Amino acid sequence: MTHSPIWHPFTQHGLNEPIPRVTHGEGAALFTADGRRIVDAISSWWVTTHGHRHPRIAAAIAEQAQRLDQIIFAGWTHDPAEEVARELTRIMPPSLTRVFFSDSGSTSVEVALKMALGYWLHRGEPRHRILVMANSYHGDTIGTMSVGARGPYNAAYEPLLFDVGTLPFPAVGAEQVTLDALEAACAEKPAALIVEPLVLGAGGMLIYPARVLREMAVICARHGVLFIADEVMTGWGRTGTLLACEQAGVVPDLLCLSKGLTGGSLPLAVTVAAEPIFEAHYAADRARMFFHSSSYTANPIACAAAAANLAIWREEPVLERIATLAGRQRERLERVAATAPVHNARALGTIAAVELGAADGAYLNPIGPALAAFFRARDLLVRPMGNTVYVMPPYCIDEADLDRVWDAIGAAARHFAEPGPAAS
Ligand SMILES: *Cc1c(COP(=O)(O)O)cnc(C)c1O
């Protein structure tokens, strides 16, 4: 092996784990330089919705690359961005009227937080406290780590993270504790609440009821606290509906979308804002403009990919495909839960998760790398979080590939099961 100078994300190079080299992808499969076909059971970290190298998205990218590759977006515009913004405002709740582009999920959250603070400042009522839910994940920048769960992954940066109000996760039977905590926290006039609707992804695929999401939105509205929905993972059908918020009848003030926005093909994000937030920044006074941009804001090629994704949603039976996949996932989840030593089997839409063995779910649980190796050896891209194994495949995955994934999860559960008292 020649030495690579690449420093990979979320990778401990000191463990010398193999880093497979991928040459191409198609549908739910990835192909490696050494000739293996890998089933992508986690949609390449939750981004690939319709499958790798979707022909319509690939064609839109190729065509746009021949036309206009990049243009400053402050004071300039272009067709692909206009099309994406128009189509987004058509399919999103009508009160979400303003589309702000950026280039990653983290950035879309940073933008939402900055818009929330700008809103309060320009109303002459400065507020800055942000409420969050325990176990949340909103990104890896300093601001998004501040509103996310604290743990080994951000311990080194903790002194730089800003203080937030943390609500307990609405665990089964303790939902009212979360709602009471929100009610109490709202009395202190926070600027906003930010939540991952229905599923906390990186926190361990923790699912909570739509009723709780709805109640949280009602409490925020009653206190005039802005409601920020981070649908970076849950958006684009992951939970069974276009947005997870739909299932709770919730319309946020600020909505963050990324991952599946381009079908998972290119980096792009949007923060969609309700009119009063735009209005608060609207004036003849340049000091009140929204001070945010990144170089690749609304990159035309990425926008063309997003426009193709939106066309796929408009013209193809995407929600039906999702419903079919959700049913197939649930069948296999139930089978594994009935026949293998797993617990906390849970599913929502295309997402399904189980916990293996009696080990705890801490991120640095040593079972993690062993499990990853187990799946890698079986040509499966599955990336457990601690002892939590989840499946979140592209919507085009077929039954045979899904069987391979779930059979391996059952086998892993048996392989890593801790011997009970009788067996030891
Ligand atoms: C992945 C994710 C982010 C961060 O998105 P990036 O594109 O990786 O910066 C933010 N919020 C949620 C809920 C996510 O799952």
TrEMBL record:
Record's subunit section: Homodimer.
Protein name as catalogued: Adenosylmethionine-8-amino-7-oxononanoate aminotransferase
Q: Which reaction does it catalyse?
A: (8S)-8-amino-7-oxononanoate + S-adenosyl-L-methionine = S-adenosyl-4-methylsulfanyl-2-oxobutanoate + (7R,8S)-7,8-diammoniononanoate
> Sorted alphabetically, which CDD domains does this protein's record hold?
OAT_like
Q: Modified residue N6-(pyridoxal phosphate)lysine is at which positions?
A: K259
Pathway(s) served: Cofactor biosynthesis; biotin biosynthesis; 7,8-diaminononanoate from 8-amino-7-oxononanoate (SAM route): step 1/1
Gene Ontology MF annotations = adenosylmethionine-8-amino-7-oxononanoate transaminase activity; dethiobiotin synthase activity; pyridoxal phosphate binding
